[in-house]
Each structure stands twice: as C-alpha cells, then as structure tokens.
Amino acid sequence: MRNFLSVDDVEDVEKLLQKALKLKKEPFEDSALGKNKTIGLIFMNPSTRTRLSTQKAAMNLGMNVMIMNLDKEGWALETQEGIIMNQNTVEHIKDAAAVMGRYCDIIGIRSFPKLVDKLEDYSEDFFQKFVKYAKVPIVSLESATLHPLQSFADLITIHEHKTKDKPKVVLTWAPHIKPLPQAVANSFSEWMLKGNVDFVITHPKGYELYEKFTGSTPIIYDQNEALRDADFIYVKNWSSYNDYGQVLSLDSNWMLTNEKLEVTNNAKVMHCLPVRRNIELSDEILDGPDSLVVEQAENRVYSCQAVLKEILIENFN
Ligand code: SN0
C-alpha cells in the first residue's frame, strides 16, 4: 500500500481486517517498526477521535508524530494553478506540500468538502495535489468524499459483534440541523460492499448517494421496512448529493428510537461520532445496551495501526 485514500487502496480487505484484530490483541508487537519515522497530521477541520487515534496508532508503532491545525495555524493555501496570488491566499499548496514531504515520511490529511461545488469536492483536488507534490505516502483522515479509516474501524466492529456469518447492515439517514458531508456514508457503503454483509440503505427521497460508492445496494425509502431483521444499524446524516449540499428534510421521524428497534434482530446501533443527541439519535439508544459507538471509536486505533503498519513495511523496509 502506498496511499490510503479509499478501500481501493487495500489489496485484500479480509486480510487487513485480520491484521487489525491481531494488533488489537498485541498493540506493541511492532513498536520498533516506525523508529525514526515521522508522520505529520494536517487538519483543515476539527477532529477528536481521528487526531487522537491516529497519534496513538503511530506511537504504538514507535513513530514520531507532528500535528498541525493548518486551517488556524498555517498560511492560507491556494490550490488553483497559474493564479496571480494577489488576494487572501498566501502560499500555494504545491509549495507547502513539497516542504511537508521533506519533513514527514507519511502525511495524514483531513480536508472536508465546501459543499458548494460538487465537481470541485468530488475531484478530491486537495488530496491529489498532496499526493503529487509531497511525494510521500498520504493517508486520508477524511477527505471531501470519503472517510476510510472510520469505515475500516466500523467493519472491524461489525466483525467483532456479529452473531451470524452474513449479518444484515442498514445505513439509515438521520436528521441534522446543518448540511454535513456525504463522506462517512459514501465510505461506509464502499466498505460494506467489500465485506461479507447483506447491505441496505434507507433515506428520504432526494438523499441518494453517488452510485460510484453505493453500487447496486438496495435503497428502501420506508425506514421501518428497511430496519426489519437488521443486525446492525448505522446512523448518519448527510446533505443531498443530487441537490448538492442542501438540507432537504428535518423530519424528526427519521431519528432512531428504541421503538423502531422492535422489528430488528436485536440490532446493534452504530454512529461515527460526534453525534447530536436527540436530533440524530435518542439518549435512550446512546445510553442503552445496544449502542456500539464507543467500541467503534476504540477500533479507530487499530484500523489506523493496521494501515500505517502496511505503509511502513511496503515503503520503508
Ligand atoms: C463530520 C461529517 O463528515 O459528518 C465528521 C464526522 C466524523 N461531522 C460533522 O461535521 C459534525 C458537525 C456538527 O455540527 O454536528
């Protein structure tokens, strides 16, 4: 593995899953692998779990970690080619990325979509430019369209808690007061398609995700019908992809409650966090026995450690 930007960068998902489970049992077995290697974590947006779990994963591998909240602490970056920089941007991404590539052996980046121009966001220009100019392996800490380290942790969590070989997994849209990226939902879909699960998506009309990521996954617009016999329910809000970046519904009936779980197969409930309580998910579920949200967050360490280990072995040893 050179870069980790999507599930497509993983040669064998099942193998990587087994490696992550092994690392969870023995997190320090490769504590010399990353000696004298430096990972730089660049944030253009806020982060709690991603920042801490990536730092911890890197430290478990013996790496040095540098973190920069570039949106607040760095110079404003220009991304357009050939532009005359007489406005607010101070430094071109090609110069910044080239320099960071000299300081870091691996670079992790978080850069959310602006949710204004679909083509711009879905081109993943920011990441592509970092790959091109930094010339070191790049790890996505959530891009405009995908959040692969989260989805991999979600797959690990499902694997650990499943009670049958091929569980039914339902991705359900939930209400939110703000327009959010499609990244978590896109990425979860991609990873579920590579896992041994029976996958279904439910959302109000108008919230269809980009087919490149959902493939032929059935979309059921009736949430109760979709939830029938579910073993896992993944709750997430996203803004419209077709009506790009718009909030089309605030319908609180889409919030998951214990009552809705009655038709499921004792479903476990998942969310990547941060969660808006009693908007996206009810207190009764989050504080009850069916929630896996903390387990998912814990697995962020091991999804990341498995990925960094792979990159270290294949690029530096
Ligand atoms: C991000 C998202 O992609 O949905 C990160 C999730 C890991 N979530 C938010 O931006 C939540 C913001 C809010 O105001 O609730």
Total helices: the number is 12
Corresponding CATH superfamily of the largest domain: Aspartate/ornithine carbamoyltransferase
Largest sheet: 4 strands, parallel
Share of helix, binned: 25-40%
Might you state the CATH topology name of the largest domain? Rossmann fold
The rounded Rg comes to 20 Å
Number of strands: 10
- Global geometry: globular
At CATH level 2, the architecture of the largest domain is: 3-Layer(aba) Sandwich
Question: Can you characterise this structure?
Answer:
This protein is α/β, with parallel strands linked by helices. 37% of the residues lie in helices and 14% in strands. It has 2 domains: 7-146 and 300-316, Aspartate/ornithine carbamoyltransferase (Rossmann fold, 3-Layer(aba) Sandwich); 150-296, Aspartate/ornithine carbamoyltransferase (Rossmann fold, 3-Layer(aba) Sandwich), CATH 3.40.50. The strands form 3 sheets. Strands 2-1-5-6 form a 4-stranded parallel β-sheet, sandwiched between helices. The chain binds N-(3-carboxypropanoyl)-L-norvaline.
Summarize the structure.
The protein is an alpha/beta fold. It has helices at 13-25, 49-60, 70-73, 93-103, 118-122, 125-134, 148-161, 183-194, 211-214, 223-227, 283-286, 293-316, and strands spanning 38-43, 64-69, 77-78, 91-92, 106-110, 138-140, 168-173, 198-202, 232-236, 268-270.
